[in-house]
């Protein structure tokens, strides 16, 4: 096992080798987003429920180090970048710039296990190149210090038509290019086709985690994505808004843990945890 693999293992369940990761880094872009008005309190709840890992911003990481001192604390992934969507705090719109907000030395000083950057596609040409430069710079630094890099390719930009935002072929292209740029780990959308996704995961040859994406309409949909992703070979799930904006957050996480770690089926989990 190499050093990168050793670090990655800290965000994986030691028995299943998989992971339920609940990110709380959304405030970087969304500001005081619903469900994370008190990120420290939310993080405390998530740790008590027994998540395997979290994505966290530099600022929140500095005020929560004491929450991760126990031996069974979840692993931590540092969000290192910011594709800013507006000059108005919490606003949305076209990406106006993509910059690093932390460096690899920060990750080392604060004992992070993994670092993560976004790779948005469909942006204006200059912004697109900024995103590629962010990934390239962090990939080189991660190789220098043996820290695993998670890259999250997303189809956000206005150059991509609305009907193509979840296009499986574009997801495959974006994932492959992120791998080519130096990703050690990929955080990607599920393509909604288990057979197709399995082939993609096999071809990528690096650990693949599935992102939760926009808010889903029902809990069953959240659990179904987790189930099919894991069956197709994903290493884990990274679900944020669909978890901590849900009034049944604790029960939902317990159900997701059974899906990911114990190969439970969707119907059993929904019934056991009253998630209907």
TrEMBL record:
SUPFAM superfamilies: Aldolase. GO terms for molecular function: fructose-bisphosphate aldolase activity. PANTHER family: 3-HYDROXY-5-PHOSPHONOOXYPENTANE-2,4-DIONE THIOLASE, FRUCTOSE-BISPHOSPHATE ALDOLASE CLASS 1. This is Fructose-bisphosphate aldolase. It comes from Petrotoga miotherma DSM 10691.
